[in-house]
Amino acid sequence: MNKGQDSRTEQLPLEDFVVVDLSVGVAGGYGTRLLADGGARVLKVEAADGDPLRRWSGSGAEIGDGESGPLFQFLAGGKESLVIDPGGADAAEQVACLLASADAVIWSSDSPFASIAELHPRRLNSDHPHLVVVSISPFGLEGPWSDRAATEFTLQAWSGAIVGLGRGAPDRAPVQVGGRVGQFVTGTYTAIGALTGRVNSRFTGRGCLIDLSMLEAIVLSLTYYPVTYHDVMERPWRTERALVLPGVQQAADGLVGMACGTLQQRQDLYVMMDHAEWIEDDAIMSRPAEVAPLIAEWVAARTVDEIRELAIAFRIPNAPVADPGNVAALDHFQVRKVFVENPYGKFLQPRQPFRISSFTWSAPQPSPPLGAHGDLTGRMRTHHDGDGIDLPFAGLRVLDMTAFWAGPTSTHLLALLGADVIHLESVVRPDGGRLVGGVSGDTEMWWEHSPIHLGGNAGKKSVTIDFTTDEGRTLLERLIESCDVLVENFTPRVLDQAGLNYERVREIRPDIVMVRMPGFGLDGPWRDIAAFAYSIEDAAGLTWMTGYPDSNPLEPSCIGDPNAGMHAVYGLLLALEHRAATGEGALVEASMIDAALSITAEQIIEYTATGSILTRQGNRGPDAAPQGLYRTKDVDEFGRLDSWIALAVEDDTQWGALVEALSEIPELEDSRFSYRAGRFEHHDEIDKLIQAWCEERDSEFIVDLLWSAGVPVARMMQPHRQTEIEQLSTRRFFEDMEHPVVGRYRQSTLPFTMTGLPDRLTQRPAPLLGQHNEDELKALGVTDDDLRALEQDGVIGRAPAR
User: Fold this and answer.
1) For residues 338 and 531, what is the distance between their CA atoms, to the nearest angstrom?
2) DSSP codes, 734-798
3) Residue 485 contacts by C-beta under 8 Å, 6 or more apart in sequence?
4) CB 13 within 8 A of CB 578
């Protein structure tokens, strides 16, 4: 094929990539599922009783002998299975035979193989130097917390995700983000880490160890740069809980979500609801007792479709609130055919979370019967040595035409790993992230102060071009020609109206990989609706799983953006693998909604397999009992009696440890609580006993007592206190920045460490608006006289147009 020609092929880009999967659970399962979708051969090594997910049904439905639960069938689709006894004398040797001919291995700390010394990730890295080793653990392999017990729920508490966005009613406990989202996003980072290691190996001839921390993945996905925000603004993002209005409301025929992130959107809402007088009293939204009943009454009198038609006309972000019973029937999803039948024909599942123009996805593949693939040893492969480089994406030039959070977080990862990322804005339309965060317009150079912009754009360059002008359009096309990758997250009509769709971009740079990140996709009836995290969360079912069981669901208001960003990164890496093999570019359509539907897969799977509707459980969860937040006697940093510890007991061993540690509560020794089903049945009673004990003690004492006993527990942290977590400090998750306008602040980095990376990843802070105009445009042949003329005409510049 000629370089740059795009033609669909049946060959997937990872068909020469062999992955040994020593993990169990959702994170490793989803990560290796993404790799299998890309064509990798995934060899799932299981103990004789198989991955525990084989016996899991979210609804409690019975799973027959020799069968597997529906979630496992989805996650294990297209993989191969063989059984090795982890207690056998030759277990390590058998696995080593597989590893000798593999390219990567995925390991999780909760696997039955994790206790085998020879299979510890550090040993795997040293004994098999050709391998990309990806380790998944709650806190990472190094640091003072590396061996501590944790669950996703306690990790959300440590991260500040539960309380930091003010999620929940002021007179109740704050509430977690439901639906295993932390495990799924960790899985996405697993796949990204594996392909990053593959790129690194291609240039160095050596493998590497990628040490992935689930806590750090949750910090990046469920909190919104809170440390940077606090450092810059000298205050937290939020200090108390409040029900966001309008939020999720009950319409005449279902739930609908609306959210107003800007003053203009709030004022448009007031007009839409025939309350234009509220414009003169915008603080009315901070008086929920007064305004909430009026909003509820207005919504209840109309259908979901009627409300959405009005909201779309007024450009107010909105979506139906999807649940397992209605999501597959939504017109947009039907037109886009986002749900497909599992190969067994027993349930629906989401298709791959992105489309890539240069190859055709395989039809969904079945999950393997346990041990179906017998002896998979003996496929030895030769590995070469090469010259090393410092960063895996050094030499990759990326044009970043994104804004707010979803797009910038994807290109931020690329910049941290060595890519030359040019963040494109215009003085007429700066990145909307510069406008978020409550910076006063009276502040000098206010557009440089937004913590959200600073957090997502470190390490990049900034060029401003108004491409709605003829001169700007010409200049942009010359910039595109110089880049390997273009990433954008406008609504589709923006680039289409500018004449810069993929066909035109490919004419300019034939081998370019163009990543488009529209909210709802490039086609379908919702195509041109502007999307924000909360509307994506509503439409995908993330909202449905979050909140108190006795009231309307609550929008997570976080995961919709960074989850989309990381899925876009993985789609980009697949397209780059294809380009490395063929010379062809590609269009990657990585919509926010498809990424969100992928991590809510369990809802539609369980419903269509068993008829059961999974729903929100407050702070309880499907894997642990007791699980919840328990108020302590501490006064929090704001002077309120609002301190909590998070506790989750997953098995009988942890329960026994809890009972022994809480010997002052003899009622916990009741035989009804001694087995898992009994603890779920009597959860309320257990909660009352634990709550009465906790409210007489402080958080630090409780956490020290229970964690030392091996019980998963956490102190509910305010997110701006993340730097006080010694585990994050040890792993250098935050780096100090010195910004020419803002001054000093701290910056989050990656959720994994990787052998061979430099000690410091962030080479420079987020750029000033237009800071690199001269350097980058002169490199394209623009003269000094041209630069002056372009600036005088407003095509380029270094301050927003007035």
Assistant:
1) 18
2) EEEEEETTTEEEEEE--SEEETT--S----S-PPPTTTTHHHHHHTTT--HHHHHHHHHTTSS-S
3) 396, 397, 398, 399, 419, 512, 513, 514, 515, 572, 576
4) yes
Give how far the C-alpha of residue 181 lies from the chain's centroid of Cα atoms, to the nearest Å: 8
3-state secondary structure of 653: helix
Residue with tokens 């000798």: 100
Residue bearing the bigger pLDDT, 437 or 444:
444
Which residue in 37, 420, 484, 561 is the catalytic one?
A: 561
Chain mean pLDDT for the chain? 93
φ and ψ at residue 314, rounded to 5 degrees: -90, 5
Structural Rg of the chain based on CA atoms: 26
Rounded CA separation 789/424 (Å): 19
- Please answer whether residues 699 and 715 qualify as being in contact, where contact means their C-beta atoms are separated by less than 8 angstroms: yes
Which residues are within 8 A (CB) of 340 and not within 5 positions of it... i.e. 6 or more apart?
348, 349, 350, 351, 363, 364
Q: Tokens at residue 479, please? A: 């910039």
| Angle at the Cα of 518 from the Cα atoms of 498 and 198, rounded to 5 degrees | 110
Greatest C-alpha distance within the chain: 85
Q: For 398-416, give the DSSP string.
A: EEEE--TTHHHHHHHHHHH
Nearest CA to 648 among 630, 664, 680, 626?
626
Nearest to 94 by CA among 45, 136, 52: 45
Classified as helix, coil or strand, 374 is: coil
Query: Could you check whether the bond before residue 626 is cis, i.e. omega within 30 degrees of 0?
Result: yes
What SS3 class is residue 646?
A: strand
The three state secondary structure string of 328-351 is HHCHHHHHHCCEEECCCCCCEEEC
CA atoms of 782 and 802, how far apart (whole Å): 26
Rounded to whole angstroms, the Cα distance separating 533 from 528 reads: 16
Write the CB contacts of 493 (distance below 8 Å, at least 6 apart in sequence).
Answer: 528
Q: CA-to-CA distance for 324 and 602, rounded, in angstroms? A: 9
Q: How many Å apart are CA 181 and CA 561, to the nearest integer?
A: 13
Whole-number percent of the chain with pLDDT over 90: 86
Q: How many CB atoms neighbour CB 759 within 10 A? A: 6
pLDDT in tens, 309-351: 999 999 999 999 999 999 999 999 999 999 999 988 789 999 9
Beta strands in 489-578 (DSSP E): 513-516
Give me the amino acid identity at 508: I
pLDDT-derived band at 387 (thresholds 50, 70, 90) equals very low
Backbone angles phi, psi at 56, to 5 degrees: -100, 135
Q: What percent of the chain has pLDDT over 70?
A: 97
Rounded-to-integer distance, Cα 534 and Cα 556, Å = 7
Write down the pLDDT at residue 788: 96
Residue 527 DSSP one-character state: T
Active-site residue 561, yes or no? yes
Nearest of 95, 93, 73 to residue 82 by alpha carbon:
95
List of residues 6+ apart from 497 with CB closer than 8 A: none
Q: What is the pLDDT of residues 609-626, one digit of tens each?
A: 999 999 999 999 999 999
Which residues lie closer than 8 Å to 592 by C-beta, 6 or more apart?
Answer: 406, 517, 518, 519, 520, 531, 536, 560, 561, 564
pLDDT at res. 212: 98
Please give the class, per CATH, of domain 625-711. alpha beta
Read off φ and ψ for residue 52, nearest 5 degrees: -55, -25
List, for residues 215-233, the tens digit of each pLDDT value: 999 999 999 999 999 999 9
| Position 7 confidence tier, pLDDT thresholds 50, 70, 90 | low
Query: CA–CA separation, 649 vs 661, rounded Å?
Result: 13
What six digits make up the tokens of 656?
């026994």
Residue pair 713/645 in contact by the 8 Å Cβ criterion: yes
Dihedral angle at the C-alpha atoms of 304, 307, 308, 312, nearest 10 degrees? 180
Question: What value does the mean pLDDT take over residues 694-700?
Answer: 97
